[in-house]
Design a protein that fits this description.
The chain has 851 residues and is an alpha+beta fold. The chain contains 22 helices and 26 strands. The strands form nine sheets. The protein has a five-stranded antiparallel beta sheet, with helices on both faces. 46% of the residues are buried.
Length: 851
């Protein structure tokens, strides 16, 4: 082998070895968190950890920018191997002549290598390293990748790095919308970013831009007219603030996926409108010391979040109103917002019919006394009306029917993660706000209910109907190995299969992944009573065994028929005053909606469902301060309906009645239970098929009357052949006492004919207070004596006289209103009541006094 060849081979081998051992350019700088809408609109961004606006590398670069940067920086980029020898030689000669470094001769690839090294001072040794690294980069990476690395990491002046951040900072638009003038401006900026950038040395920047545009004309890239128009455009001004259309969601994404480019499901126009409505309503509420409001819109069919307003974005001049707090994932007291789930659960299990009467009378438990919002009682109310009117006492009674543990299991299967205590911790107060839930999970549960019904009506076999809202379409980050965007997405088939429960004799329970972004939020304490259960008036139907092998109670899923009937009840909810007369306008949408107000007026909820959307609204104070007048109907409902009016329904129809799982059956017109043999007035009603196993009406009795049908009689005093046997609708005494006040058509039992004794054993009176086996705490007066208590009895006869005894000692009599004041010492006591017809009832209780 000739010596020359050996020398060439040796040199080539040395160069190749140097290239291989040269450092591969890579970037480990922190990235900004970027949030985009569903159409790519920038919703918000957060600066990187080093204080730079540095967006994650884009999937593609705009052709205008690519053309400008190649023509300006490296005309032969597409052909050289990372180093342009001609440019290097020219730069070397120019620098020698000038006696200083006036020209670099760097290619785009070499600039990438330089940027990867932290952009150090220029030296000949550094240049050699950059050349070797550039050639190595060309060996292992494509030209497209190299150009992307350059565009993502080039400095653009100030704290702006990368073309994506520069486009938004200087033009207020994405790179896809850049004009020729803007593309040329951004192409020349990295040449001297510390000296020339928008807002500084404007004329020099204009000259450089215009020279590049003229160069493009000379190279036949653009025509002279395009060049002239581009040169007439004004230069970008000083850097603009980043868009902030969803600041709380941007913060949430920064916590969940820092340094990522997240493409969300949010509709940018709807987001702007919802945010504006939240701000306008919150400004009004500000006068009552209510400083925070939040709202979100979920698409029913897909579960995608279309609008996410985590809080008001109005200026917080005081700096103490907590408007930076994202209230959507924050656990808050639920108030009455969980009642539809309970109603649907009872219908699904078949333990209650849609309009079965539920007691609505004064009710007391150990340490817990529920009251309706208006502090009134109806005696008995159809279950559907109780839901529509959001009555608290019937809701507690319905929770007694279902059982607290079964209801808690249902909430867990629906995806709620905030109820992390046993059922005994919450007790019956669970249905009135004794627990906390987030708007995120509430909206997901309401949307899942609508999705189950919608897919059932459409005949769609969708095994993944029940899941939390979907917020992320895609997320990219070149700095992190993986982005856990599953926190915001629907469950996979495997996940759903793993989370389902098998229930004896029923379908598998609906379930969902219990996942949402974990972010610290202030939590508001709520009254949580581990209350007992008094079962009087609790008309439970026999139910199948609901125990697993381990003995844990399970609840059946919410079925489409039960969900439809729940929505039918919620459609009847009276709308706020701002919606007066809505039914007279054909354009007004049908909405199934529910409000909730927490104890102490801390949280006001309103959630509305249409066949297409679920809208959730919360108002209150982030720090948990209660405000008089704060309620779901007055504070949140007006905002709810304003948002609903923004939405364009895909169809004008309401949910149709499900064809499967429902049956038309006869129910008692008076009680709403399945019609029994004594029910005279009956009506046909659509009920879930599971409701056919519910108990029949037991409120109707067979009553023997005299020939005039004015008096009751018995065989001891009246001839059986002359008796008139009539069915009679009879409520228990306490229920009857309040029911007849609101229902004039209710007929009380006739009195017995003189000389006829009562042999029917129908109780004529009943204790309202104290409850059975009650433990009553009685405070002491200033004098040290235990204060009195006020027992109460309901009697069927208005003019009845009742004689009261405490521990066999007579204490007095009452007429009409049967309340009497008694003083009892500590310990066990028995209070006895005897009416003027000799009927006797007694109640045992235990008094606890302060020491």
């Amino acid at each position: 082998m000739r010596p020359v060849v050996k020398i060439i081979i040796g040199i080539a081998a040395t160069v190749i070895l140097c290239i291989l051992v040269a450092p591969m350019p890579s970037f480990h700088t922190p990235l900004s968190t970027v949030l985009e809408a569903s159409d790519g609109t920038l919703l918000g961004a957060r600066v990187a950890a080093d204080g730079q606006w540095r967006f994650p590398p884009p999937d593609s670069l705009p052709e205008k920018y690519v053309t400008c940067v190649i023509n300006y920086e490296d005309r032969y980029f597409r052909w050289h191997p990372g180093v342009n020898p001609v440019a290097v030689v020219k730069a070397l000669l120019d620098n020698i002549r000038a006696g200083e470094t006036v020209r670099g001769g760097s290619t785009i690839t070499m600039q990438v290598a330089r940027l990867a090294r932290g952009n150090p001072d220029r030296t000949y040794s550094g240049k050699i390293i950059e050349m070797l690294s550039a050639m190595k980069l060309e060996l292992f990476r494509s030209k497209r990748t190299i150009l992307h690395l350059y565009a993502a990491n080039a400095p653009f002046g100030g704290n702006t790095v990368g073309i994506e951040a520069a486009a938004w900072r200087y033009t207020g638009r994405s790179t896809a919308d850049l004009s020729w003038a803007e593309a040329a401006t951004l192409a020349v900026l990295p040449n001297a970013p510390s000296l020339i950038y928008p807002g500084r040395n404007t004329q020099r920047l204009r000259d450089k831009r215009d020279r590049l545009l003229q160069l493009l004309v000379a190279r036949n890239v653009i025509d002279s007219l395009t060049c002239s128009l581009a040169m007439s455009e004004a230069l970008p001004g000083a850097p603009r603030p980043m868009p902030s259309l969803a600041p709380h969601l941007t913060d949430r994404m920064m916590l969940a996926a820092p340094g990522s480019m997240v493409k969300s499901t949010v509709d940018p126009m709807l987001q702007k409108e919802v945010t504006a409505l939240v701000n306008s309503h919150q400004a009004v509420l500000e006068g009552n010391g209510i400083h925070n409001a939040a709202a979100m819109v979920v698409d029913v069919a897909s579960g995608r979040v279309l609008a996410y307003a985590g809080n008001s974005t109005l200026p917080d001049s005081a700096g103490r109103h907590g408007r930076e707090v994202d209230m959507i994932p924050a656990p808050r007291s639920t108030g009455s917002i969980m009642k539809p789930f309970l109603y649907a659960a009872l219908l699904s299990s078949g333990e209650m019919l849609p309009n079965a009467l539920i007691p609505d009378i004064p009710t007391r438990f150990q340490g817990f006394r529920p009251e309706n919002s208006d502090f009134s009682y109806s005696g008995a109310v159809p279950a559907g009306d109780a839901l529509a009117r959001s009555l608290n006492i019937p809701a507690v009674r319905m929770l007694q029917m279902l059982d607290e543990e079964r209801f808690l299991n249902l909430l867990h299967s629906m995806g709620f993660t905030t109820f992390d205590n046993p059922a005994s911790h919450y007790g019956l107060s669970l249905i009135l706000g004794g627990g906390e839930a987030s708007m995120w999970e509430l909206a997901g549960a309401y949307a899942s209910m609508a999705r189950v019904l919608h897919n059932s009506l459409e005949g769609i076999a969708a095994p993944h109907d029940w899941h939390m809202p979907v917020l992320v379409q895609s997320a990219v980050s070149s700095r992190q190995p993986a982005l856990h965007s599953r926190q915001f997405e629907a469950p996979t088939q495997q996940e759903e299969a793993q989370s389902r429960h098998n229930v004896s004799g029923q379908q598998s329970a609906l379930s969902s992944p219990q996942s949402s972004v974990s972010s610290w939020q202030p939590s508001v304490g709520t009254p949580q009573s581990a209350v007992g259960s008094e079962r009087s008036h609790d008309r439970k139907a026999p139910s199948p065994d609901r125990k697993t092998e381990t003995g844990t109670s399970l609840t059946p899923p919410l079925t489409p028929p039960a969900i439809w009937l729940t929505y039918e009840a919620l459609r009847r909810v009276n709308r706020p005053e701002t919606e007066t007369g809505w039914q007279y306008f054909g354009s007004a949408p049908e909405v199934a909606w529910k409000t909730g107000t927490s104890f102490g007026y801390r949280d006001a909820w309103a959630i509305g469902t249409t066949p297409d959307y679920v809208v959730a609204v919360w108002t209150g104070n982030a720090d948990g301060e209660g405000r008089p007048g704060l309620s779901g109907i007055t504070s949140s409902a007006p905002l709810l309906f304003d948002i609903i009016r923004l939405l364009q329904p895909s169809s004008s129809h309401w949910f149709s009645r499900p064809g499967e799982g429902m049956t038309l059956t006869e129910v008692c017109a008076s009680s709403g239970y399945r019609a029994g043999p004594l029910c005279e007035e009956k009506r046909q009603e659509w009920v879930p098929e599971t409701g056919l196993r519910s108990e029949s009406c037991s409120y109707h009795l067979s009553v023997a009357l005299d020939a005039t049908e004015k008096y009751r009689v018995s065989t001891a005093c009246y001839s059986p052949s002359e008796m008139v046997i009539c069915p009679w609708f009879v409520l228990p005494p306490a229920m009857e006492y309040y029911y007849r006040m609101r229902n004039p058509s209710y007929h009380t039992l006739p009195p017995f004919l003189k000389g006829c004794a009562d042999d029917t054993k129908v109780p004529s009176m009943e204790f309202i207070y104290p409850p059975r086996d009650a433990r009553i705490f009685i405070p002491r007066s200033l004098g040290g004596e235990m204060m009195s208590i006020l027992p109460e009895i309901a009697h069927r006869r208005k003019n009845a006289v009742i004689y009261w005894h405490l521990d066999d000692s007579y204490i007095g009599m009452t007429r009409h209103i049967h309340q009497t004041e008694i003083r009892a010492g500590e310990g066990d006591h028995i209070i006895t009541a005897i009416d003027d017809e000799g009927m006797t009832i007694a109640r045992r209780f235990y008094c606890i006094g302060t020491p």
